[in-house]
Amino acid sequence: MSVCRNWRHCLAALLAAAFAGLAGCGSPDAKFVEYRTYARLSEKAAGYENGFTHLQRQDVNNVLAALYGTPDAPSLPALANVDVTKLLDISKLKLAAGSVGSDGKGRPRGLYREHCAHCHGITGDGNGPTASFLNPYPRDYRAGLFKFKSTPIGYRPLHEDLKKIVIDGIPGTAMPSFRLLPDQEIEALVEYVKYLAIRGETERQFYNGLKDDISESDFLSHADPAVAAKELADGNDGKAPAQKAIDEKVAETDKQRLEAIKGYTETVFQKWLEAAEFMTQDTVKVTNRNDAMRVLREELVAAGSNEKKLTDEMVLAESQQRGRKLFYGPIGNCFTCHGPTALGDGQLGDYDGWTVELIGKTPKKEDIKDYIKHGMPEPRNIRPRNLRHGVYRGGMRPLDLYWRVRNGIEGTPMPGNDKLKPQEIWHLVNYVQSLPYEQISNPYEAVPENRRERN
Amino acid sequence: MKYLPRNRLLVLVALAAAGCARSSGTAVWIDQEEVASLRKSLGGEAAGKTEVVAAAEPTGFATIKGTFKLVGTAPARVPLSITKDMNICMPGGTPVLGEQLVVAPGGGIKDVLIFCNSKFPAGDPKWEHPDYAAAKAEKVLFDQKSCVFLTHVVAARTGQTVLLKNSDPVGHNANIVAKGKALSSNFNIGGNSASDYLVTGESAEPFDVSCSVHPWMAAKMITRDNPCFDVTKADGSFEIKNVPAGVPLDFKIWQEACNFISVATINGKVIKLPKGKLTFKDKDVLKPNEQRILEVTVDVSVFTK
Question: 20 to 30 A from B236, CA-CA: which of A112, A295, A303, B161?
Fold first, then answer.
């Protein structure tokens, strides 16, 4: 043979071949993954024994790619009834998308993959390589639900809410702070998170559509002329229809299909725009804590306290006392979950909303197995916060605690309190903030009685 | 040559190449041509939302009424595990039973939801009877007593307010995990007080309402744009007044234990209901002032399978 005339040639040829092989092995293009858990949920609800067909799933993927592009080249849909640019900025998305690196001018690329993807995944499914090692699990953006925000349950978060989480991180979890990044890079990341959430929500809408319009199960794909011909024939005593009629029917079905796709997509964008609008209302504006304390002071003076002797500490103590009453009362009702001693041990058997959606509140073994197979992380119980640590995931500012008490926490059993007056919410916040400093939170160390003194 | 024949060399090269491909899990494969054509048609289409409305106009109003009955022996109701506030949630220590499928002695099935799935043009008096417009201002009561949601399946219209009431001395909340265009909500409801939930949009299927404090408490809620729906009473009876007549309509029938009911005997005839869909069209279209009676029996196997 000509290649291997002797063993040296042979070795050289082998090495050359090995190098050639290796050089051809760059990473494949990053791809979004399918929302398998939600597809499974929809399949089950629709009663599909064997699941959605390959073609149906392919259809969803094609439409999603047409609307939102790929991880390397994101794009935004042009929608008639919604101003997409009000919500997302494509130039910022491009800064965050793609593989990690920088362009000729030194501007960064691939920020999301650099900082976020290893936990949150390329698709934002909360299933990156490190995800299963973390407790709590990283957020799966695709439901559009975020815990720590200024908007009430049922509304999407504001841009500023997500930005705060990126800047501050989430204390007590693996989510770090990205405060050291330049502002425009943080902005790009926040935009990209919104983009992934919206893309995921749209995917859910499509699977919902597949589930609901079961007879029109190919509602996302092109109309089939053969099916149209058969339908026309059925409506006309079996007579074969004219080609023109078939073409018209196909065109009509295709038009409906595009309208359906746009309708589903617009619904998702509208939800995000709605939140920003909702938060401009006066009724949801937060009152200042200092104002609340001033009002309490005036109340106390009116009730006969000596104005000169009444220190700020005394007003605060009174506020904490009132907060304590609410904490254990039937309106605040905090102790039922956070526990009679606020150690977070009142209710331990719940799951979070992302899990309950798939397997229910009292999950069956076979369901858990099934969804884990499709990408659900091993379910863990969600625990009410231990309020004696003084670590609050949604932020340490009094305002953050105010929002938690007022609005509840999306996707968890924590309810909001719309019946409490702003002042009462501040009392609760004051009480909660005092808990880590109560003696029970920092018990004295027991001193052994017969300890031998050492020099 | 002696050491490495060419075919082995090829195998090695092939292995080297194959070893590099990374597993991409369920990464999606995309049909680029289809994507390009779709993108073009999505971007190029003219503006405007199409209202999906049946072409015909209603000629009057009719009533649909009837009963749902079970054929066969209903599965026993499972006692709930009550773990908290025992004196209020389990008065006298009597076990509280789950309400998934409640069947009356005569066979009547409670909490079957039947709703019109056709789209009505908004605010058109030909479609929506004036009585409904007047009833829109009334609040829909959703009460809780002894840690049980007294309405196990609650249905309300877009624009209506659901009064989330708490008749217990202990605090509850109504954790509404909405679907479709309805809004999720979860607010504390103190003992013997109430809270409002405004219905902002419709949902194609019922969704969960639960209480975070008492995890065994469960109910279902559905929100609809059109007013034609009812939930069967304890004896299995229902009545939907003022349904638009003279137009083809789709209804859907749902029960918690089986989701959408797939097959039922209606007035003696076995009818398959794809995804719970019952259609009145052609000769079945309702006539003005007609009283359409639906005597529905459902075999127990529908619920237990």
Answer: B161
Residue located via tokens 């799966």: A140
Interchain CB distance below 8 Å, A262 and B9? no
Token pair 């699977």 in the structure block, residue: A207
Residues of chain A positioned with their CB less than 8 A from the CB of B25: 33
CATH superfamily of B129-225: Cupredoxins -  blue copper proteins (2.60.40.420)
pLDDT per position as a tens digit, B123-162: 788 898 988 888 888 999 999 999 999 999 999 999 999 9
Check if the beta carbon of residue A405 is closer than 8 Å to that of residue A299: no
Answer yes or no: do B20 and A262 touch at CB < 8 A: no
CATH pick for B52-128+226-305 out of 3.40.50.2300, 2.70.70.10, 2.60.40.10, 3.40.630.30? 2.60.40.10
CA distance A411 to A23: 47
Paired with B195 in beta bridges are: B164
Q: How far is residue B214's CA from residue B223's CA, in Å, rounded to a whole number? A: 24
* Å between A335 CA and nearest CA of chain B: 10
Q: Report CB contact under 8 Å: A66, B42.
A: yes
Q: What are the start-end ranges of the E strands in A7-134? A: 101-102, 108-109
Using alpha carbons, list the distances in angstroms from residue B53 to A138, A352, B47.
43, 39, 18
What confidence category does residue A220 fall into, taking pLDDT thresholds of 50, 70 and 90?
low
Q: Which of B275, B160, B173, B179 lies closest to A143 in space, CA to CA?
A: B179
Task: Give percent above pLDDT 90 in chain A.
Answer: 62
- Find chain B residues with C-beta within 8 A of A410's C-beta: 184
Q: Which residue of A has its CA nearest to B205?
A: A212
Q: What percent of chain B has pLDDT over 90?
A: 61
Whether complex ipTM tops 0.85 = no
Tell me the three state secondary structure of residue B149. strand
B186: helix, strand or coil: strand
What is the average per-residue pLDDT within A1-22? 66
Contacts of A34 in chain B (CB under 8 A): 26, 28
Q: Which pLDDT belongs to residue A210?
A: 84
Q: Which domains does chain A have, with CATH numbers?
A: 28-281 (no CATH), 286-348+383-439 (1.10.760)
pLDDT in tens, A328-365: 988 888 999 999 999 999 888 899 999 999 999 889 99
- Contact between A173 and B203 under an 8 Å Cβ cutoff? The reply is no
Q: Do domains B52-128+226-305 and B129-225 have the same CATH topology?
A: yes
Nearest Cβ partner of A4 from B1, B191, B205? B1
Token pair recorded at residue A8: 């040296």
Contacts of residue B7, Cβ cutoff 8 Å, sequence gap at least 6: none
Mean pLDDT of A399-406: 94
Query: pLDDT of A159-207, one tens digit each?
Result: 999 999 999 999 999 999 999 999 999 999 999 999 999 999 999 999 9
What number of residues does chain B have? 305
